[in-house]
Amino acid sequence: MFRLPPYLLCLVLIVSCNDKKATPSSQNKVIDLTQHVNPFIGTSKMGHVFPGATTPFGMVQLSPQTHMEVMYDSIGNYNPLTYEYCAGYQYKDSTIIGFSHTNFSGTGHSDLGDFLIMPTTGNLNLEPLRHINGQKGFYSTFSHDKESAEPGYYQVDLDSYGIKAELTASPRVGFHQYTFPNKEQAHIILDMMYNVYHHDQKNVWTFIRVENDSLITGYRQTKGWARTRKVFFALSFSKPFKSYGHKKYDKKGYNGFYRRFEEDKNFPEMAGKDIRAYFDFDVNAGEKIQLKMALSNVSTQGALKNLEAEIAHWNFNQIKNQAKADWNLELSKIKVDMLSKDQLTTFYTALYHTNLSPIIYEDVDGNYRGLDQNIHQSDGFTNYTIFSLWDTYRALHPLFNLTQPQRNNEMIKSMLAHQEQSVHGMLPIWSHYANENWCMIGYHATSIIADAMVKNIGDFDQKQALNASVTTANVDYFEGIGDYKSYKYVPEDKSLSSVSKTLEYAYNDWCIAQMAKQLKQSNTQKSFEERADYYKNVFDASIGFMRPRLSSGEFKTDFDAMDTHGQGFIEGNAWNYGLYVPHDIKQMIELKGGKEQFSLHLDSLFTMEIDDKFIEKTEDITRDGIIGNYVHGNEPGHHIPYLYNWTNDAHKTQARVRMIMDRMYGPTVEGLCGNDDAGQMSAWYIFSALGFYPVTPGSPFYDLGSPLVKEARITLSNGNTITITANNQSENNIYVSEVKWNGKTVNGLQLNHNELTNGGELVFEMSKTPRL
């Protein structure tokens, strides 16, 4: 019987019934699991997560934007440090320049940062940071002692002004509340120039329209990582502003003349490439000014609809409580008891991170902007975006098949819509905001589709999905696919990162074969099973490593298996990325010399030293995420600790998994060892803490590890529950002596998803010594 620990028997929430989107289940009393979430985990160094207010999979991510140091060019453009600020926030900073409404969570590249809002008092100042002459900008200093965050809520004292800033959100609306300390003149600045990354280069056009004395609308088009991106807004104030204006920073006017600083007051339409607007108020001591900003990727009319549908009132606490209830609903799908409160914090923050993206990408009426830049109507599904698939197919989407099957079904339908709108006929690779940015390699939507099919998830059109996958796998001009088909590997002299591409394509092709098998399309199955074997063609038996091969058929000379640069791999080397054959692990082990030799190879991987020269200039590989030559801070090796299960040393999987959970995750701001990568890093932890992991998505099997939980209960969408018990759990009892499913001993080291979803009890017997 699953029992809640005493410290989980805590505050309960009564969910407001006023929100039109509230579901009957969300109106019941639920345990407050948000108390175990720390949104600041991963906000230091390279975790690239944001601490601000959002809802599960919400379109709005309302979060502070910080900068520690700013360098200026000769004409005053500011260029902050870039890579650290993928999410717009670094915990080391002591200044806030405002609060933006869109932010990535845990990505290895940056974009977004739309519609920066900053409240100020005193003389109006429209420069965000230091002026060229050294004068302070509109930023504010802040202290972490007066900053806090929880799911759906963020607050901080802006010390430069004495303003208390509070943020919450609904799925499509950001809700601000600013409390002013004195009777004085206040300003709300709307910075349309600010962008995460390359601030002064991304804007194409901005537009603001003053509808009345408390409502403005507008939009911005940018050309960042997404080559063309439009976001519309409707901004409503809780009290009328007494005056307003803007400053235009366009470097050239329409006629070619230099027009860097152009200022207009009380002009109802503001248009230009780079604009900052301001709205003036007289406030009393202790007065609150509230703002609601609704987003749309369709139109300002869509933003107004979203505003009215989701927050038609000015009750800040009601929306804050609703957001908290929405988060409790998602977090309660996995209830756990662990060895310590720190582990609870680490677990539930990881679960929180897995529910931040992909995000809803449509208005309340179902309209959304498609990949073809036309406006589409979702039909029978909710449209989603932000598909970081090279990362998330590995564990995040398999986790969704346990905890979010309906959402994953809709995400697949969104991918199929993307493919229909693509001029290339391709499923998404790495897509966001109606754009394909072509980042990373492989066509991993096939993995997500195959995984859903073999696990009986969703009602998407499986034949359409197979056809879309086959079409994608035959776009010859994409990243060496044509050469891959012709040579049966990707030649390094024709396409860089050739080994990584060959390995990823081979796995993707195996996934397509699984789809075809399920649909009884034998010719397609056979064709892609043959392609799935192409990984063997880049294995050099003379050295025992995957190695780049040239179009001549010869292997690349001057090859270093340790090097992560120019050796046929992307974000990895032959030692770690060369073990990426998740669909044919037994054969890969035979190629590497058999079980005993392979186990020794894994031992060496985890214990060897790696010179700095091999990882320098590789943004996604840092010392924080490395154990020996095993790189947990990046995704290609996430399955590697579980590969001992295919040798005679399964106990080493158990030891390695527990070590990684202890060393690479934690309850502090540095509790992520690398980019969370849109939830993949956190999903690895969730699975591993529960005691199993999807080594081969596209297969119904999970591979057993060593659970960190004492007890867990997974509530499935079909009404069944999976109860997990780890008897004799302790810090020292890291080995598993026996596993039982519904009272029967599990033979082997795998669990079947389709058996687990029937519900039942999974029991691990933990031991201090391995079962050899």
UniProtKB/TrEMBL annotation:
Matching InterPro entries: 6-hairpin_glycosidase_sf, GH-type_carb-bd, GH92_a_mannosidase_put, GH92_N, Glyco_hydro_92, PNGase
Domain Glycosyl hydrolase family 92 N-terminal: start-end pairs: 36-296
Subunit structure: Monomer.
Descriptive protein name: Sugar hydrolase
PANTHER family in the record: PEPTIDE N-GLYCANASE PNGASE -RELATED, SECRETED PROTEIN
One Gene Ontology cellular component annotation held by this UniProt entry: cytosol
Cofactors that this protein relies on: Ca(2+)
Entry keyword set: Calcium, Hydrolase
Pfam families found in the cross-reference section: Glyco_hydro_92, Glyco_hydro_92N
Residues of the Glycosyl hydrolase family domain: 303-767
A single MF term (Gene Ontology): peptide-N4-(N-acetyl-beta-glucosaminyl)asparagine amidase activity
Calcium keyword on record: yes
Transport is among the record's keywords: no
Organism: Sediminicola luteus
Any GO BP: carbohydrate metabolic process
